[in-house]
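Hi P.,

Sorry for the delay on this. The queue was packed all week, but I finally got your sequence through. Input first:
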Amino acid sequence: MTPLPKPVFLDRTTPPHVLTLVLLAGLSALSMNVFLPSLPNMTAYFQTDYALMQLSVSAYLGLTGFLQVLIGPLSDRYGRRPVILVSLVLFVLASIGCLFAHSIEVFLVFRMAQASIATGMVLSRAIVRDIVPANEAASMIGYVTMGMSVVPMIAPAIGGYLDEAFGWHANFAVLLAMALVVGVLIFFDLGETNMNRSASMTAQIRDYPELVGSRRFWGYVLTATFTSGSFFAFLGGAPFVGTTVFELPSSELGIYFGIVSIGYLVGNFISGRYSGRAGINWMMMVGAWFTLIGLATAVATMLAGATHPLAFFGFMVTVGIGNGMVLPNANAGMVSVRPHLAGSASGLGGAIMLAGGASLAALAGAILQIGHGAYPLLLLMITTSVLALASVAYVIRVERLAGPLDPQDLA
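Then the structure:
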């Protein structure tokens, strides 16, 4: 790894301050969930049905996943800074388009264009891997995503109140304002961290077989995909459950949405504090079990006759904690298998994770029917949690056969 200077805040010649990475990744999270409590009202505004309106979540996730395949190699070839700046300009224009859309078709076009902010999720991880070695990456990613999790924790609650007070347009006005603020910060603080750029995009593509041929890479990717799958299924189905099963207004629904993010904050703190000592595989296993046990308890509680919204939403804190413990460690492993392909690994892994997330969000919206309660959604989330545990077990098996993860390991 080429040595980098120590970060100096608002100095474009040094790596970014951790706050800059938090806000960059946080904008990506904000775009994903701030408007979720508005979905029922947006459905009425555009005079469409919920399944079509829900494409603003599931199709957005799918396109975000596709873009991540391109973002990683582009940043490995041209650098992190220019790719991020271009994406922010596109996001600003797309947010303006969402604000002025008068039909569901036009809105969805600009909503899909907002997926350009996927650079925030992809390149914040790659930049961390540029700055610190593998052993420190999980802890730093944990702290970055812990700070980032404050945004989705409060965003649905704020979005719900904005929706009630000013209408759904207010949420996209907030996204536009935040994009402008983050763009200025990125311009003045984000120095280039990719000091080992590929010679060409062709050379970058030729390196892909080295990455996709790694058993360890696939183990970490599948762990991240199935772990986040429970969260994405929640995103796709919880608005329906909240409004139809528990009859919550959008402001209350936003508050209940924040519960999962509180758990995510706690889980990321645990990762930041203990991953370096406990090891990334052990942290992933504990986090996966935490999620599964919490979801199983939610089903048991509702079968016992509980009808309060906390019987469903309260146990979502375990989904947040599990994601917060698993994802920083899975992401750190993912980008450390081939350090010289950190951007590509982050992009490809993130694409697979979000493609799975988009599918599960859409599936959650499709399987939920009036009269069936929250059970179809809970069973879907439990299934993904079981698959996450199986993926962690596979990672541990590969480590036993090939030895511990090392930046130079080609297993």
